[in-house]
Amino acid sequence: MLIKTPSNEHRPYQAFFSTFSKNKIYIDHTNWEIIGKHEKHEKYIVPKEPVYGRFIDIYPLTIGWIGDLHIADETSEKLTRIFETFRKINPSLSIILGDIVNGCGTYNNITIKEEWFEKAWNNMKQKLPNVFWVKGNHDVEPSRHYYYNWFTRLWHLKLRKFDLIGFDTYNEDRVLEGTVFAHVGLSDIFYLKRIFSSTENTKIIFSHHPLNEWYSCSHSVLKDFKETTLNIAAHSHSLEKRLVNDVETYINGTAGPNYEGCIISILILYPDKKLKIINVKGDIEVEKNENTVVIKTGETVNWENENIKEKIPIRLNIHNVNLIALVPSETETCIKYSLDGNQLFLEKDIEIYIKGKIDVDEVKPIDICPLLDGSEIRSYHIPEEISKIKVNLH
Questions:
Q1: Which long-range contacts (CB under 8 A, 24 or more apart) does 367-375 make?
Q2: Under DSSP, is residue 287 helix (H, G, I), strand (E, B) or coil?
Q3: Which of 135, 190, 342, 354 has the greatest count of CB atoms below 10 A from its CB?
Q4: How much is the pLDDT for 273?
């Protein structure tokens, strides 16, 4: 399914879409199976005939997320830096967790301009791959519901091993004027219940308000799924980890204007249903030349904002092969590559994952995703100690 924006562009809000339109569709084509003639660009495609698209959930997947951008008439230097860091990390999905623009936030005033959403979208669409939004309390005001021209309030990416759920915690049908707290509608709780009861996947709820502000509304649904549920949120303009009635809740609202510095969180989803979150605080540099990629990483922090050593997942596209480089923080590495016919040769000194229509001699794939055309995408884990690798392209 697609949303048509006021700028006559399309954005997906589910894991598949079909369209007869020939307008731009903002997806990273390296992550989607697309059937039908189309032009490929770095962050969008242009259909030449009716097309069908399906998100390829081949693991590991990386999801970059942050909240509380509060975009208004001007885009701050801080936000420009955030978008640029997103571009260099290049996650499989990018999720913005509400307060995208800087409305009054209490649903009792009129300040929002639709141009703010247009500015937000224009800043993101060329840098963030596969952008999804979640609505926050600063994104809607009485009689000014421009958010809905640009995205939806509820969305669900049903993947093979995970369910990613965009959830509205500031439902205008329930909001009390003058408040910033979560207000969840009964119909939305039934929406959650329908998803939770239909799958055994791990459920990840992306919301603006942290779960502690709306758990009492959702207890009837979540009480039986605590071990397989995760909440990722913003709202507090802080970096925090909370345990809310035995449900792990991770909060990153550090894009907020009153938070010093900025931190981008990267969620890594693995084929065994395990996951990990990396908090990237320092700058990233990625320089790609004809046969090399040089990557420099900054610092990473824990949930107490203390410096720790982690491996930052940087996603690259090399000759139609998705490569996730796990680069240790505050280091520099170089990946060398060359193409000889249908063979790609890689030389590296770090741990990597490679994904595509490929096979690797003497290495077993960790995940396989069948495609509609009968082919398949394979994922391989190449540990640090294997410095040279030959990849067979299909």
A1: 367/58, 367/59, 367/271, 368/58, 369/56, 369/57, 369/58, 369/160, 371/33, 371/56, 372/33, 372/35, 372/54, 373/33, 373/35
A2: strand
A3: 135
A4: 94
Q: pLDDT value at position 74?
A: 87
CB 284 within 8 A of CB 85: yes
pLDDT band at 349 (very low <50, low <70, confident <90, very high): very high
CA distances from 141 to 3, 177, 213 (A): 21, 10, 20
Phi, psi of 252 (to 5 degrees): -140, 100
Whole-number Å distance between alpha carbons of 49 and 38: 7
How high is the mean pLDDT of the chain?
A: 95
For residue 86 the two structure tokens come to: 């997103």
Tell which residue, 307, 292, 286, 295, has the closest CA to residue 332.
Answer: 295
**Cα(first)–Cα(last) distance of the chain, in Å?**
30
Minimal CA–CA distance to 159: which of 189, 126, 130, 123? 130
Parallel, antiparallel or unpaired: strands 45-47 and 202-207:
unpaired
Percent of the chain at pLDDT exceeding 90: 93
Residue 340: CB atoms within 10 Å: 8
Q: How many CA atoms lie within 13 A of 137 on its CB side?
A: 25
CB 339 within 8 A of CB 318: no
Per DSSP, the three-state class of 77 is helix
How far is residue 76's CA from residue 66's CA, in Å, rounded to a whole number?
16
Specify the pairing of strand 38-40 against strand 2-4. Answer: unpaired
Q: Are 96 and 131 in contact (CB under 8 A)?
A: yes
Residue 330 buriedness (CB in 10 A; 0-12 / 13-18 / 19+): middle
Structure tokens at 76: 């701050």
Separation of CA 32 from chain center: 14
* pLDDT score for 272: 95
Helix (H, G, I), strand (E, B) or coil at 253: coil
Name the band, by pLDDT with cuts 50, 70 and 90, for residue 216: very high
Task: Look up the CATH architecture of domain 61-280.
Answer: 4-Layer Sandwich (3.60)
- Partnered with residue 293 across adjacent β-strands are 288, 335
